[in-house]
């Protein structure tokens, strides 16, 4: 009996060794340039929940003009989303173009509030995204706005931008009582005291006091190349890979995808996907196709910036934008003619790790005074806001630290407070 058992064990061991040698031979003799079609088929199919434009093109700040002496700011996402949802359910009636005087009167009226978008967009795009019937005259369809102003006194809703040169005011009808309940709940909305003075840089609200904010650590997930190939490629069933330390994918249609092994930066180039239907100001809809197909892999993503065929979408946490090196925390889509370039990073924040650590940031007035003292020309400052800086976690690569800091948009480029100071000191601006 023992002899039979020994023979079975020996045969099993020999079989396992032969199988191991065969598999090793298959690995070492595979071609360096090979099709990935079969590999894609082997991957278990994932149900990708696509993003909606109504989840991404949303306001990110709420300013409540309680009275002449009290202007309050909140970035509480649930309140902002709920208020915006109720606003867009209004019945939009007659509209009127306001001049600079009328716009400033609407802006400074008491018992009102402002919803802020990170960047301007054409009002016709906003109407298309939310299926609103605004009945705009042709000369106003391309009006760019980033502020929605609503007055509880006049029950008028106004679309305005940072220039205050003109705006569009609507007579509206809807549930303003419920909106007022949401906006006036000071305890729930965690308001900060702010000031809006004519001399403020770029018409922004200034934080009156120093502000204490939590730091966060987040678990990060490194997305596989298939996440991006399926989201970006027009033809992802016949891809080829060139063996190297980086990921290099291409197909016969001229599309290509690279992922840098050292930084995780993702770069895609290809032909612009054809939208289901052609719209005016198509840039916003064309670029969103690449956000839509990423689904929830990138977490909370918001429309953040647009200029010269380039649209940027950025991660937000606790109502603040995330800034990181090597495209971390953002997705950028550039359209040139019928070509498209997409940039992002395969490292994406997933789950927060509880933390009680806080950082205190100086008030906006103190920040501006410091910038003036080191020689920064405030005429070049286009925006200032608090954001979270993506930093390497010293203990593990599976997590990142997100640290609150001031960010300054100088001549169209975002700098952290520390980076801007460093550049000025080195004479780099």
UniProtKB/TrEMBL annotation:
Residues 12-415 form the Regulatory protein YycH domain. The keyword Cell wall biogenesis/degradation does not apply. Pfam families: YycH (PF07435). Coiled coil: none annotated. Gene3D superfamilies: 3.10.450.310. The chain crosses the membrane at residues 7-28. Keywords: Membrane, Transmembrane, Transmembrane helix. InterPro entries: YycH. This is Two-component system activity regulator YycH. It comes from Vagococcus carniphilus.
């Amino acid at each position: 009996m023992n002899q039979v058992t020994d023979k079975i064990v020996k045969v099993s061991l020999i079989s396992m060794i032969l199988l191991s040698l065969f598999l090793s031979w298959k690995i070492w003799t595979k071609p360096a340039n090979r099709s990935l079609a079969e590999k894609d088929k082997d991957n278990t199919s994932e149900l990708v929940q696509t993003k909606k434009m109504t989840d991404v093109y949303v306001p990110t700040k709420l300013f409540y003009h309680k009275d002449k002496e009290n202007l309050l700011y909140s970035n509480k996402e649930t309140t902002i989303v709920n208020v915006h949802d109720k606003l867009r359910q209004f019945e939009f009636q007659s509209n009127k173009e306001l001049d600079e005087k009328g716009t400033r009167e609407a802006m400074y009226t008491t018992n009102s509030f402002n919803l802020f978008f990170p960047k301007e967009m054409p009002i016709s795009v906003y109407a298309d995204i939310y299926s609103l019937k605004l009945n705009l005259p042709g000369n106003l369809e391309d009006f760019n706005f980033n502020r929605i102003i609503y007055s509880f006194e006049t029950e008028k809703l106004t679309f305005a931008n940072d220039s205050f040169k003109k705006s569009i005011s609507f007579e509206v009808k809807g549930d303003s009582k419920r909106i007022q309940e949401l906006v006036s709940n000071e305890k729930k909305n965690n308001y900060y005291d702010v000031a809006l003075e004519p001399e403020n840089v770029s018409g922004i609200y200034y934080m009156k006091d120093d502000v204490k904010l939590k730091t966060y650590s987040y678990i990060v997930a490194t997305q596989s190349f298939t996440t991006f190939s399926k989201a970006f490629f027009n033809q992802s069933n016949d891809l080829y890979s060139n063996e190297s330390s980086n990921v290099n994918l291409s197909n016969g249609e001229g599309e290509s995808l690279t992922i840098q092994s050292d930084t995780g930066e993702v770069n895609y180039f290809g032909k612009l996907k054809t939208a289901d239907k052609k719209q005016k100001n198509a840039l916003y809809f064309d670029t969103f196709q690449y956000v839509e197909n990423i689904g929830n892999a990138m977490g909370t993503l918001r429309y953040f910036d647009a200029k010269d065929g380039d649209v940027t979408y950025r991660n937000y946490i606790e109502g603040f934008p995330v800034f990181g090196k090597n495209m971390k925390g953002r997705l950028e889509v550039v359209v040139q003619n019928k070509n498209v370039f997409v940039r992002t990073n395969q490292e994406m924040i997933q789950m927060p790790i509880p933390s009680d650590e806080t950082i205190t940031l100086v008030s906006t007035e103190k920040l501006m005074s410091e910038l003036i003292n080191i020689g920064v020309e405030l005429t070049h400052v286009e925006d200032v806001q608090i954001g979270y800086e993506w930093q390497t976690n010293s203990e593990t690569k599976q997590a990142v630290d997100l640290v609150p800091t001031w960010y300054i948009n100088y001549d169209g480029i975002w700098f952290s407070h520390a980076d801007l100071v460093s550049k000025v000191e080195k004479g780099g601006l």
